[in-house]
Here is the input.
Amino acid sequence: MDMHAHDQPLPTVPETDSATDPIAAVPPGAERAHPVLPHTPMRAWIMWLGAVAVYLVAVFNRSSLGVAGLDAEHRFGISASALSTFSMLQLLVYAGMQIPVGLLIDRLGPRRMLISGLSVMCAAQACFAAVPSFGLALAARGLLGCGDAMVFISVLRIVAAWFPTRRVALLTQLTSLTGAAGGIASTWPLAWALRTFGWSGTFLGIAGAGLCVLVLPTLVVRDTPETAAPRVPRPRPDAPRVRVRTQMREAWARPHTRLGLWVHFTTGFPGAVFSLLWGYPFLVQGEGVDAGTASGLLTLLICAGMGISFGFGVLLTHRPQQRIPYALAVIGVTAGALAAVLLWPGRAPGWLLVVLICAYATNGGGSMIAFDIARSANPPESLGTASGMVNVGAFIASAITLQATGFLLDRTGAGHALTAAAALDGYKTAFCFPFVLLALGTVQILRLSRAAGEFTAAPRPRALRRSPSAAPTS
Here is the structure.
């Protein structure tokens, strides 16, 4: 579907066609009507940059406990399992908010949700800086997850409204890539800030920086081009409330939506858990890496992930029929690298830790495949709802893994082990848990891929693949 998003709405493609034919989404005569891919207006890039800046701040806020975990243990006097509750609650709130946020985006528009989400995150970080007790700090992290939940799928809606459909897969990956810069700032720069300004000064500074970014969605970002009718029709005031339930039921009934959820669930959580909380303690306490090197490895994870996300975007633009093989490859590489580190006798050598980091770096780009899968079978008016359903996946898996890892670390005594070998054994035991969810997710992906027709889709003709006007399956 080679067209400007602001020229006309996307056609609603019957699910049976899009599930079985990778070029079924191309309307008759589309190639003839648009022989050359139109130039994307500069204004569209300005809209995307304004929205993605909010996502960058959201990723930074989400990851801000990655190097502050040990400081949080000392500040609040908590154990490893209690520390994992911070991130677990944050992610559970995030996941629980996805469907309501998707429905609100479909009705209120992404700009309002970006403003609301960033405002809530700023308030949450200010509270986190000031609260003296674990319970209040836990509430602040839950509030942070609520604000974070409003951002990413709002950016996806901006992308869908402003860019030609053929470029949406690439822009989705670029959004992930650019947002990852927030993860870089949450590694060694945040560690330096904690040493220099202390706990309260650091988190108050984070809240202040977020307020400065708030000017972008307020003054710059717009939901749709001013010269076009909105792609997503606003519901009439007298529309029955049953429409919400119908919209959710229809989105969930599409196999591509459920497949997208499981792809997101399985590909996204290992690297997220590692970077959000347990990677830094594992490297420092378990593998005996110094703090500077550990921060550098976490930075490498994010930088490598940015490059891999761009690569996935290019691949999905030209070979969208390979979405499931790409996702399965991400799962296999992640499981293989983690197994190699855990099975290595004693501490793993530096090169093997770099391999593990690079394997985790594929997770971000791999999880973005899920949104491309869901978008290929959902009409524009329910795209926010479907994206919200998909985005639940990795955050549910991450929340489960964060808590399970903390529980296993407490049971093995890894955090307070008397010897380095005992600490490493405890971390290795705890880090075995992801294999359970990786296996579960892989089974579901294989099952739903057949239902969605992903394995039976015929490849596009070579001429169509090379045609500038050819549309990807998404």
User: Anything to note?
Assistant: Confidence is low (pLDDT under 50) at residues 1-38, 227-232, 457-474. The domain at 41-225+243-465 is CATH 1.20.1250.20 (Growth Hormone; Chain: A;). The chain is about 75% helix and 0% strand.
